[in-house]
Structure formats: C-alpha cells, structure tokens
C-alpha cells in the first residue's frame, strides 16, 4: 500500500492505531467522511465474535465510535484519508481506485 502511495508521489502518514488509539473525536471525523456504510469500519473477526457482539448493533456512527474507542483492534484497516473522504483500503482495488482519484 505504501509503495503505491509513494509511486504516485503522494505523502503518507502511517498511524499505528494500536500503539496510539484514535480518540472519539478522531473516530467521529473518520465516520463522517467514510465512503460507505459506517458498520464497515468494524472488523467482524474472531475477536468480535469472542466478545459476543452482533453486527446489527453497529450500524450507527455513535455505536461504531463507542465500540472502536473501547476496542481499537476492531477497526477495519488500512484506511486512506485525503482530508475529505475516508476509504477502507480493502480489497486492494478499493485502494487503487481511491489513489487514482487523487
């Protein structure tokens, strides 16, 4: 991903979200600008299931922000953010389309 960004001559900032989890305010900003359903920002991985969570409960911005503040490792990644919109860079074609639009 970083190679594709650098190949286009763009600057990238890598955020180590587990080492420095995003604040509620940062998450609210990401959610507002997310290109797609807000629930897509939540990873529905084995940890999600281990917690006994239900994907239907995480379809609103507030629910997603609260969940990700409590469990940052459930945040879908990588994210690409150009300041105006945020895209989940999975699959790689989504990342390429986003980068091509810059």
Any overview of this molecule?
- With 102 residues, the chain is mainly alpha-helical.
- The protein has one domain (2-100): Glutaredoxin (3-Layer(aba) Sandwich).
- It contains 5 helices and 2 strands, in the order H-H-H-H-E-E-H.
- Strands 1-2 form a two-stranded antiparallel sheet.
- Strand 1 and strand 2 (86-88) form a beta hairpin.
- Helix 2 (24-33) crosses helix 4.
Blueprint of the fold:
Blueprint: H1 2-7, H2 24-33, H3 46-50, H4 61-70, E1 79-81, E2 86-88, H5 92-100
Antiparallel strand pairs: 1-2
Helix pairs in contact: 2-4
Short characterization:
The chain is built from five helices and two strands. By secondary structure, it is mainly α.
From the structure above, extract its key features:
102 residues, Glutaredoxin, 2 strands
CATH class membership: Alpha Beta
Q: Tally the helices: what do you get?
A: 5
* N-to-C SSE string, H for helix and E for strand: HHHHEEH
| Residue fraction in strands | 5-15%
Q: Helical content, roughly?
A: 25-40%
Q: Structural class, please?
A: mainly alpha
Label the CATH architecture: 3-Layer(aba) Sandwich
Name of the CATH superfamily: Glutaredoxin
Radius of gyration: 14 Å
What's the shape? elongated
Number of strands: 2
